[in-house]
């Protein structure tokens, strides 16, 4: 089987600073990949490259066997992207916003309406279909963003902290949704800091630190036969310092 996403020697600099360093990564179709790393590791930069937002990188990114530099429009059809807390067009209703998104993908109006209503109904916010989103809570906005990211039925779904702001019921819906998308053969690229969720939903975990991939394996293999949580594996491998000491010095700072 060929990888559906392939990064070959991908590097990206902001000025002098190299934030991705020769990243090589193969992602096989039909898998849920948990993409994790400390703040500033390069996760969002990777996602921006995959979604065509950043183009001044070196190396090659192949999606479905084609170089994305040569097929950016095709790639955009294949990928659904759910950003974390994007600027929604607050003055629009979900109905208007999702039709706007659907039009970007050349979708027929009646298909957009049908899918939008069914997905929002599953999220429990169908009654808000025609309300302006400026009155929406964070979680309601996130549900609309999730809907917008999958409405064109993409083969690859990239999610950036999709659980952000969601209540417990919605988290369950999203977890189930991930499994259903997977059963449907879709590839999921899941970026998150919520280790307990990543650990449960991902087929593979890719750990990036300071622009370099330092682990790429199943959770079982990362545990090496032990029973550690992903959180402790993360802390060990990224060694961002003694966490107790960090907390201690923050607490001390309040008293000095
Ligand atoms: N537009 C920019 N200009 C300059 N530096 C940037 C820019 N965007 C990101 N960076 C830097 O690139 C590095 C990687 O950032 P990136 O946003 O990819 O990290 P991340 O892994 O997504 O972090 P987080 O978990 O905090 O979201 C960071 O050091 C960041 O400061």
Automatic annotation (TrEMBL):
UniProt xrefs under PROSITE patterns: ABC_TRANSPORTER_2
Keyword Nucleotide-binding annotated: yes
GO molecular function: ATP binding
Pfam families noted in UniProt: ABC_tran
Residue ranges crossing the lipid bilayer per the database entry: none
Keywords: ATP-binding, Nucleotide-binding, Transport
Residue ranges constituting the ABC transporter domain according to the UniProt record: 5-235
UniProt key word Secreted: no
Protein name: ABC transporter ATP-binding protein
């Amino acid at each position: 089987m060929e990888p559906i996403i392939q990064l070959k020697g991908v590097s990206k600099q902001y000025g002098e600073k190299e934030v991705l360093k020769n990243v090589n990564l193969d992602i096989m179709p039909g898998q849920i990949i948990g993409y994790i790393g400390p703040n500033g590791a390069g996760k969002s930069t990777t996602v921006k490259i995959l979604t065509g937002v950043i183009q001044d990188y070196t190396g090659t990114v192949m999606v479905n066997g084609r170089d994305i530099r040569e097929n950016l429009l095709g790639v955009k059809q294949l990928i659904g992207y759910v950003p974390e807390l994007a600027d929604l067009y607050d003055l629009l209703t979900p109905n208007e916003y999702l039709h706007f998104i659907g039009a970007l993908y050349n979708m027929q109006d009646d298909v957009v309406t049908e899918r939008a209503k069914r997905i929002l109904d599953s999220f429990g916010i169908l009654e808000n279909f025609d309300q302006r989103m400026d009155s929406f809570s964070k979680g309601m906005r996130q549900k609309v963003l999730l809907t917008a990211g999958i409405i064109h039925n993409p083969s690859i779904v990239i999610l950036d902290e999709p659980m952000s702001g969601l209540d417990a019921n919605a988290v369950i819906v999203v977890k189930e949704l991930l499994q259903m998308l997977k059963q449907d053969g879709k590839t999921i690229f899941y970026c998150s800091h919520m280790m307990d969720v990543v650990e449960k939903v991902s087929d593979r975990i890719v750990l990036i630190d300071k622009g370099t991939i330092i682990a790429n394996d199943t959770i079982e293999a990362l545990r090496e036969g032990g029973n550690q949580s992903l959180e402790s594996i993360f802390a060990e491998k990224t060694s961002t310092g003694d966490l107790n000491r960090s907390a201690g010095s923050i607490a001390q700072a309040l008293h000095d």
